[in-house]
Structure formats: structure tokens, C-alpha cells
Amino acid sequence: MVKIALDAGHGINTAGKRTPDGEREWAFNSKVLLACTAKLNKYQDVQILRLDDPTGNTDVPLATRTNKANAWKADALVSIHHNALAGKWGSHGGVETLVQEITASKASKDIAAIIQPRIVQEMGLRDRGVKPKNNHMTRVSNMPAILTEGGFMDSTTDIPALRSDAKLKAQGEAIADGLAEYFKLKLKVAGTPAPPKEDGELKFSSPTVRKAYEKLLESKATQEIVINGGIKAGAFGELWRSKWENKELEPDDIVGLAVLFATKK
């Protein structure tokens, strides 16, 4: 199993992280991250952990992000960003990928070398190359880590690409495919059925138990208890929070977690 930590840099209201017209960097970053997550989920044997606030409302401290990735023992970390020069429109521009200066691992450099040209191609922007730079996300992470800059928000050349949802989606998929190349991931086989449950469905000891199960599935209160009282509060661990953030929770997961939550009380 390959564990990938993804990070949409900054938050919606982080000062200075916006275009001259007021568009927020986090909004660009998050679209790329979501596309990357969706594409990674098409590969076998991958787990994904999102390090930033998926709503963007909180600019999660950098130490919190890297602590989370380190504790999870991620195999790689990608921090997704978009650049700016002076906050004024100009003709500068281009894509670059950053690795930690001096101490970057060979794995970090190799991943960056695979992903950088893929982003350049999909965004259709100038190639500024892979660059060494000192920053927290690559310095403090225990795993191979890179920071992508998918174009300049204050560039008259780059901004049309950043405003294109299709381009941002392609950028996210480029990152995912680059990671898949490095880790030699295989795509899931289309149409492969999930392993069947016994006799094709869950077994219940009685009609009363079945009705109780179905009632839990339909209950909004159950979902609120699991999500607000359990997942968001950290009662079930980072894996379940990641599955919820990536919209991967199944109905059976909700019911199971509700029962687990009740037994913890």
C-alpha cells in the first residue's frame, strides 16, 4: 500500500495569497488536489491523506500539516501551490517544482523530475524547472516531499490557464500520474466486481436486527454523530477522516462507526 499525503497550500483568507483581482490561491490549489485525489483513486493500493482544511476556512499551521503526514508515515508528500511575484500583473510566468535545498533526498528529486514536465505540458506554460529551496513542507517532512508551483497568479500569461477548470484538473491528474509512475502503481481494472458478501448481502440474525440496521442507515442523526462527534473530533483516527474528506465513506462504514462510537461512550 502506497500512502500519499496531499496539501493544498494556505487557506482562503491567507493574506497576500491571491491574484491582483482577488481570486484566492487556495481555490486554485484545492481544485488541483481534488483532481489529483480522484485520479489516484483509480490506481490500486493507494491511500490518500489531505493535510489542509478541505473547506479552506482555516489555514492549518505548517507544523500541524507535516506532523500529520509524519505520524501517518506517508510514502510521499506533495504540497500544491501557485506562484506570485509582486502581486501586480506582469509578463513573468511559468511552472516550477521545489525540493528542499541541500538535504533533498534522491527520491524527492526523482519524483520532482517526473512531475515537473507533466505539469508544464498540461498547463501549457513556461518550464522553470526543478529548484532547490528551503521551505517547511519539504524540510520537516520525513518522507520524500515536493512543492509544486503550477503557474503565476499575477501573470497575464499564466492566469488564463489558472482560470481554466479543465487545466487545473489536468494538472492534478498529471501529479497523480507522475506519482503512479514513480511508485509503479497499476490502474484498477474497469468493471472488476467487488468481492461479494456472503450470499450477496449482509447476514442479519433476525428481521428486528435488519430493521435496526436500515434505520441507522437512513438516520441523519447517525451521520451527524459519526461525522461531527467522531471523525472531526479525531475519535477514529486519520484514516477515517481521510476517507470522509475524500468522500469514500460507504453506508456500512457509517453504521459501523456509529456502533463503535456508542461503545466508546
Task: Characterise this structure.
InterPro entries: MurNAc-LAA_cat (IPR002508), N-acetylmuramoyl_amidase_3 (IPR050695). One of its GO terms (molecular function) is N-acetylmuramoyl-L-alanine amidase activity. Its EC number is 3.5.1.28. The protein is an alpha/beta fold. It folds into 2 domains: 182 residues, Aminopeptidase, CATH 3.40.630.40; 67 residues, no CATH class. 45% of the residues lie in helices and 15% in strands. Strands 2-1-3-6-4-5 form a 6-stranded mixed beta sheet, with helices on both faces. Helix 3 packs antiparallel against helix 6. The protein is globular and about 70 Å long. About 5% of the residues have low confidence.
Which descriptors would you attach to this protein?
single chain, 265 residues, alpha/beta, Aminopeptidase, 2 domains, 6-stranded mixed beta sheet, 10 helices
Query: Span from first to last CA?
Result: 32 Å
Question: What integer is the average pLDDT?
Answer: 87
**Distinct helical segment count:** 10
Which CATH architecture of the largest domain is right? 3-Layer(aba) Sandwich
CATH topology of the largest domain: Aminopeptidase
| Major β-sheet strand ordering | 2-1-3-6-4-5
Could you say how many structural domains there are in total? 2
Helix content: 40-55%
Q: Please compute the radius of gyration using only Cα atoms.
A: 21 Å
Q: SSE order in H/E notation? A: EHEHEEHEHEHHHHHH
- SSE-based structural type: alpha/beta
Main beta sheet: 6 strands, mixed
Beta-strand content estimate: 15-25%
Q: Which class of the largest domain in CATH terms? A: Alpha Beta
The number of distinct β-strands equals 6
Shape: globular
Assign the CATH superfamily of the largest domain. Zn-dependent exopeptidases
The low-pLDDT segments are 192-204
EC number: 3.5.1.28
GO molecular function, one term: N-acetylmuramoyl-L-alanine amidase activity
Domain MurNAc-LAA: 66-180
Protein name: N-acetylmuramoyl-L-alanine amidase
